[in-house]
Amino acid sequence: MNKRLQELPLLRPIESESGYCGTDVNWQPSGTVTAEVQPISDAATAELYGVNIARSVLLLCEPGTVILERFRVEINGEQYEVKGVTRFTNYTKAGAEKV
Description:
The structure is a single chain. By secondary structure, the chain is mainly β. The protein has a single domain (5-98), classed as Bacteriophage SPP1 head-tail adaptor protein (Thrombin, subunit H). Helix content is 7%, strand content 58%. It has one helix at 43-49, and strands at residues 5-17, 23-39, 56-61, 72-75, 78-87, 92-98. It has a 6-stranded antiparallel β-barrel. The model has no long low-confidence stretch (mean pLDDT 89).
């Protein structure tokens, strides 16, 4: 296994009707994702994924990885929400912002 790759807990949103009004969102564990975590270092990438450059990371995942917008990953005990996903032939790239 590549030393830069990490197994990250993956959470997906589960919506339910709120007792008050609207909907509640709970985060349910949905396995793990294997990814290399890189800080976002340029404004163009941040704009592409619609994230704040100071609080964001890029996840470089294996091809075929099931990761969608609104999913969350846990990195060093902190949650990051996926804001955008781009799929390529040999890898999947996801922009995520700290919650």
